[in-house]
Amino acid sequence: ALRRVQQEEGRSIQLQKELLQQFREMDAERRVLQNQKCEQEQEHVRLRKEKEDFQREKNELQREKEELQKEREELQKEKEELEKQKQELDSWKTSHAQGQASGFYSC
């Protein structure tokens, strides 16, 4: 009977050692998974920040593009107005030169 009790205690101690080893392994796995989760969360935050920065830069570039387009349109209008004035001046010069040649204008 004593021997059987000793064998049972031995098995009990062995089972406790095995359970302790399993617990340590599971705890180590839990820590690895926790670290991975933390790294993933940090990566997610970094990517979200990058996305926000990219969107902000994209919006800024869009505003700049729109401003440049307005400037271009204004410059095009100015160019057309100057061309119109040049044509009027050329037309006036031509008619004035013809008028002087025919004697209508005398100074």
TrEMBL record:
Which residues lie in Basic and acidic residues bias regions?
Answer: 50-93
Extract the ranges annotated as region (Disordered). 50-107
Compositionally biased intervals (Polar residues): 94-107
Q: What is this protein called?
A: Uncharacterized protein
Q: Which organism is it from?
A: Cirrhinus mrigala
Please name the taxonomic classification of the source.
Eukaryota, Metazoa, Chordata, Craniata, Vertebrata
